[in-house]
Amino acid sequence: MARGIAPKRRNGIGMRGAALLIAALAGLALCLAGIWQLEAARAGLTITRLQAGTTPLTVYRRDGAAASPVVVIAHGFAGSRQFMEAYALTLAHAGYVAVAFDFEGHGRNPTPMSGDVTRVDGTTSKLMSEIGRVTDVALSLPGADGRVALLGHSMASDIIVRQASADPRIGATVAISMFSEAVTASAPRNLLIITGEWEASLRQDGLRNLKLADPAAQEGDTVGDPAGAGGRRAVVAPGVEHVSVLYSSAALHEARGWLDRVFGRTSSGPVTATGGSIALLLTGLVLLAWPLAALLPKGDAAPLVVPLRSLAIATLVPAVVTPIALRFVDTRFLPVLVADYLAAHLLVYGALSLALLRLQGVRFGPIAWLGALTLAAYGIVGFGTALDRYVASFMPIAARLPIIAAIAVGAVPYMLADSIANQGGHAALWRTLWIRAAFLASLGGAVALDVRRLFFLLIIIPVIVLFFIVFGVIGGCVGRRTGSPLAEGIGLGLILAWALGVTFPMFVAG
Q1: What predicted TM-score, i.e. pTM, was given to this entire model?
Q2: Domains, the chain, ranges and CATH?
Q3: pLDDT confidence of 121, banded at 50, 70, 90?
Q4: pLDDT tens digits, residue range 35-48?
Q5: How far apart are CA 272 and CA 94, in angstroms?
Q6: How far is Cα 323 from Cα 442, in angstroms, rounded to an integer?
């Protein structure tokens, strides 16, 4: 019998080794393809980093371009310059001088947001002043011909609409995923509204603002004359929502075409919809996690088993109790918008879940520290470097390090509970969906209990969902290899704290 079994065992090891090799080669190929495409999109451009006071700028110019209009590009809430790069690259290739910047409190801008976020004469006014300062610097750049346009996404759409109405220098405005109450029948001049097909409420708002200029107008119509007295247009980018609209070829074409009409230009050059290239790179990094995790020492502990009853109690009780308990607690202890509450929510939810699991006899097992630290390093350094260059700011300024540390106090217990409930990567998909859905429902309950203060949590939920999808897969590779849910939880907790700490805007009242 022993002789009959041995070949199968050797064959099994060989098949697994071959699968790991294929995964490694495929992951590496995807990463290289994504990087090659993303770097090729920058070819022929000069990209320069400058400062407007404390505001960091990135200037994109086509090599050898004649003097041309400037386009100041503004990101949305919790975004950064990198988030808007598809528009900056497309417009720079078209011959414009594209200037992207980090709003106060965002990205690498060391000055926190301030004022009252609910009042136009509060935070909104301060951000308008910042755009004014950036516009001053942009118009003084070599290659600027004195004409200027504003382009902004989401939160920035309201800021640029108000600034364009107040600043007579602004010749055109491109508002992406716009929500603003400042639009009138004639202001701002030469307004293009771009909305994703799956942004139903914003589409209605865009059409309403188009009808202010002409009650008979419909989506896709152009009202007035953008090359003359002024015009307005509202269009829908097909098959995209609030984030993917930033990588839509249709949206990029519309933005470039509108600016050409306003400024009397005929542009050429590529439309750099970089979303597909970014997806290739990130997919490659996820795929590489499996063969890289196989290099870690293999754990010999039996897979963790969490009975269904224990799982239900450890997820549903914290999901209900946490938002209710924190409703009566002042969680404003960090100089960031909403992240202080989220850190407290993670801590209470995670601690309750861990306690309930332990009380029901679930054993957590040992900590594989090498696996935990390797997972954290791969997420923060490996993934983080790619994200910071091509997607959004991920490498923090010094002022954000204490914020990351404070969020980790809540993020690590939460991810420990999550990893144990997921049985160290061995749970069925339906269990994983249940566990994550319970947490997201808990956040939704918190928002419902305090909409005024916690509304911005709804905007950050897509970031958390993306974290679960991407890093959940990577963490599962480490958990299964090491046999240590605690290693998976610690590593993922540190990555989550880092991601939230570099994403939420820094903020001080007043």
Answers
A1: 0.93
A2: 41-272 (3.40.50.1820), 294-508 (no CATH)
A3: confident
A4: 999 999 999 999 99
A5: 11
A6: 6
